[in-house]
Amino acid sequence: MKQLLAILAATTALAGAVQAQEIKQFNIGILGGENAQDRIANNQCLVDYMSDALGVPVKLFTPADYDGVLQGLIGGTIDFAILGASGYAKIALDDPGAVTPFATTANPDGSFVYYSVGFTRKDTGIKSLDDMKGHSFGFGDPNSTSGYLIPSVEIPKQTGHSMKSGDYFGEVKFTGGHEQTIVAVNNGDIDAGVTWADGQGNWEDGYNNGALRKAVDSGLIDMNNIVEIWRSKPIPNGPLVIRNALPEDIKQKAEQVMLTLKDKDSECLYNAAGGESAGFVKIDPSYYDSIIDVRKAKIEQGS
């Protein structure tokens, strides 16, 4: 009996070792909306921490658009990513078993929400959506929560018009991402657009966290030249997701890297989270049910 137990223990240990060696590389996907060079620089620290924790090479992938990361997670070429809620909703609807959200970003005050913020240049004289009739308007990416999904639902309710070009706004177009929207508004290529921000902290800093904060840090804009003209209802902060097909020990180690990042490296956290935050904290997948419902409704409406 003892010999049998020893054999079983050895077999179990061997199986665990084989499982741990199932991956030869760990791939991190970084959403579009920011130039690839900055995305790589801001997340290189994650490569180092993940590589040390997992014992395998780690690579960053920076597809041109959001869907490149989403399809990578579904197809198995990307193992981990920090998504927006709408991006996760797309995966949840297309392939429910592909990934699991395990954490989200906590704001400095401990909340887990952010906003879609409509903005324009101060010199346009535009103060609110009421002044936007006939003016051009920019979305970021079709899979962005704050850059498309939420404003495309909430703004028509406020204006009483669709988001189609010429209905209420003049030209309505996709810019390609948050950074592109900010640059296009700042340069006068479009009159106004939407991006994401936690809505906390000082306007001149681009708030504490979000695309405006990143743009200020990068020297792309001076917030004194920009004004806010609209703000959405609170949106759930996006999830950190990991591919379900990975070995359990790999998933646990990768999750631990992100959940302890605040105590380990505040600068790395700042770069990965897009500004000031209270760190990455565990979240239940049900937190995103409302966004999944909104995305599903738009699909059913054919919009």
UniProtKB/TrEMBL annotation:
Could you tell me which SUPFAM superfamilies the record lists for this protein? Answer: Periplasmic binding protein-like II
Q: Which residues are the signal sequence here?
A: 1-20
Name used for this protein in its record: Phosphonate ABC transporter substrate-binding protein
Keyword Ion transport recorded: no
Superkingdom per UniProt: Bacteria
Q: Does the keyword Calcium apply?
A: no
As for family, the record states: Belongs to the phosphate/phosphite/phosphonate binding protein family.
